[in-house]
Design a protein that fits this description.
nine-stranded antiparallel sheet; eight-stranded antiparallel sheet; 37 strands; 22% strand; globular
Length: 737
Amino acid sequence: MNKIAYVNPLQGTDSIYPYSNGNTLPLTSLPFAMNAWALQTSEAGGGWWFSPNHNRTEGFRLTHQPSPWIGDYGHMAFIPQTGPLKTSGHDRSSSFRKKDLVVRPDYMKVHLLRYQTTMELAPTARCASIRLTYKRRDEARFILAPFPGETTMQIDTANNTLTGYTTAKAGGTPENYRMYFAIRFNCSIVGELSGLFDAKHNTNADLNGTGERLGAYVSLELPADGMVEASFSTSFISQEQAFTNLDREIGQQSFDDILQAATAIWEKQLGVIEVESDDQEKLKTFYTSLYRTSLFPHAIHEFTADGEQVHFSPYNGKIEKGPLYADIGFWDTYRTSFPLYNLLYPSFVNEMMQGWVNAYKETGWMPKWASPGERSMMPGTLIDVSFADAIVKGNTGFDVETAYEGLHKHATTVSPDNRYGRKGMGEYLKFEYMPADIHTHESVCNTLDYVYGDFCIAQIAKHLGRDEEYTQLMKRAEQYKHLYDPAVGFMRGKLQDGSWLEPFDPTVWGGPYTEGGAYQSSWAVQHDLLGLADCMGGREAAKERLDALFAAEPEFKVGSYGFEIHEMSEMANVDFGQFAISNQPSFHFPYIYTALGYPALTQQWVRRTMDELFSSHPDGLPGDEDNGSLCAWYVFGAMGLYPLSPGVPEYVLGTPYFKKMTVHLENGKHIVIEAANNTAEHKYVSGVQLNGESVSRLYLTHEELANGGVLAFEMSTQAPAEVSDLEKLPYAMAKNK
């Protein structure tokens, strides 16, 4: 089965600043490649520079943007043109017919009606092959348009190349940051008709120059068939390295050669999961979601002519050895994306984790939000969880000792620079929580994330035999209890003197909470949900609180945000109570029921969420997709498994979405997930067998999955009964003391 045919990169792209249907981009890129490429329809849109509702384009864009909220860097736009020279985005834009637009993971094509020219692109990891077919031949040229920042352009008519660099960036780079590029045309450049243009779009006949937002227009001597191939290479290291990347990844290969290779790579990436279904729409949603999990982070290392792996460090501004990755936030991705990588792509995980170790060695602190360097966004240091999840699942092909050193450092040390380490660490160490009268912003969420991080670092300490540190960190992993107020039944802000922050309203967002209120922020105790239930009065009482959350009106008060942020709008727009699936803190809410022994309610809410809130369409996601995290939630849901507590090598059982799915593991083994009588009505699980043996537990271990076999679900219209035997419930600190 051709998997690429089921992928729609337009999924989630119908988004605007006030409301997210995904906030995604229609990216053509190899999996985890250094660069991605997309159609730019309006630079004026800022971070929202593509819309599926537009029918004009300003060209293809080289992009690294992980989110409209983070912004882009190393970005440039390019477009073929005929007729009078126009250089600004507005003036050069051309209409296109949407039915003629082709956007696939491996290939992009648009026909420019204004210029009667077709532009195609096929990607490699650090380059792209571009094919331009000029039906109209008058004044045929290629325009390369940079973004704000210093740029250098050099048009070389002897070698038919356009080279240079850009310093365009949104942040996270040192002063000497540059993205170099080299474009090689397979036809002659007409020098006397080529030149440069400045930020105000004044043109000149110079063939080289340096300036603010300096762009280039390159006149081409077209062959008889009007078809030109251009090879576009990039490097963060040097101009010479850009040519090395060009030679290594494209060389003398044709456009069709590059496309064929890109297609094969994506078919292999998507082919790790074979789904059997007659429902074409569900297949499209599944494979589109799997595609989105494979776009971030970007591998920003390169290979020298001798094959040595090196990278430009956005942390110290030096050229360093080894791998490095960028463009991902751990707060967003630790829950679903990284656990999916650990199951499906362990070799990639090992290299990526070594990349984060390298980032630590180059800056002295583990990253929190890398794009390309530290952006210091979101609460917590959730890289703790991602390292622990890899290690406890046996993916240890990196420098684990140095990783632990970096993680333990931010768990015990106050950083002098607030961009790095844990914010408010001094108070956390002193009070065992972050006082809301000292840290008026996100004190509850930061505290809970630090507590969970401590638990995860403890698991690495245990792996390394550091028993004393393990014991200390596990004690700290209980500190979530400081912020639970049984009088109101929620986590809430606490002051230095131990009194509660007043007034209290669970529908008020902000203040001590992050992108939510007490409803969304009181369940971030994935490592000890039974312990949290004890705080609430027991499993049944916790279930009732969860029932109330799903049954509540999706109302909110803007609180300290002062206006309606898009996450509020997305929660209020669907009838799922206070379950804000649009944002990561709510991801695990349906699965908490299973952790408490009520699997029927997990199955009910997961199935309803997948049925009603996900599709492959431009409005097909219920909120920010965030680097694969929301789509990984869908992939796990479809498998009937969920990593409820990353850092623990377990998956709770859910409700599979298809009748049969085969997961091809990297170790050569296979997991066959069967649910023969799976229908919309048969959404409940009445029994589970693994390799013919009945599974009475509500979870499976990672080792069981890694060994492969047949996982058979018996589906029913009848809800399964409560499970009260604690030994059959997933991991919780409270039952493992």
